[in-house]
Amino acid sequence: MSYDPNNIFAKIIRGEIPCNKVFEDDHVLAFHDISPQTPTHILVLPKGAYVSFADFSQQASPEEIAAFVRAVGRIAAEAGLVEPGYRILANHGVHAHQEVPHFHLHLFGGKDLGRMIKPPEK
Ligand code: 5GP
Fold first, then answer.
1. Cβ of residue 91 lying under 6 Å from some atom of ligand 1
2. Exposed end of the chain (fewer CB within 10 Å): N or C?
3. pLDDT digits over 14-64, tens only?
């Protein structure tokens, strides 16, 4: 899948659409999810044009990957989530219902998050 520069997160990174910003540096932007699923629900994005984790993990530079991983840990700590705990999640592709084709991690916290995967609905 090629990168669509008009996806919603690309527009947020370019400042064309506002966001409730949590963190920004040269390589990373983080902001609150517009439709939070937990008391704390932060999206963490590399600024580079990567469609998904598959793309980011293969194409990003070591500097971008290091900056991203460090930022996720720092954002979780600054949100006060280290002690009570948190979950990080990335959706890739159709089976994971990825909606926005710009790689991002979800950082969930602020309550007991239950088990990892929701059981299938009967
Ligand atoms: P995905 O399914 O791609 O992993 O998740 C995309 C996430 O982006 C969803 O949780 C959705 O609520 C969030 N989202 C979609 N559009 C916007 C937006 O314009 N602003 C913000 N802050 N979050 C958005």
1. yes
2. C
3. 999 999 999 999 999 999 999 999 999 999 999 999 999 999 999 999 999
Q: Locate tokens 């990825």: which residue?
A: 98
Residue 98 burial (CB count, 10 A): 17
Question: What span, in angstroms and rounded, lies between the C-alpha atoms of 116 and 18?
Answer: 31
Q: Name the residue of 7, 8, 17 whose CB sits within 8 Å of the most ligand 1 atoms, as the mutation to test its pocket.
A: 8
Q: Which helix (H) or strand (E) holds 76?
A: helix 62-78
Q: Could you tell me which residues come within 8 angstroms of residue 19 by beta carbon, excluding any fewer than 6 positions away? A: 12, 29, 31, 32
Structure tokens at 99: 């909606």
Interatomic CA distance for residues 8 and 1, integer angstroms: 16
DSSP 26: S
Length of the chain: 122
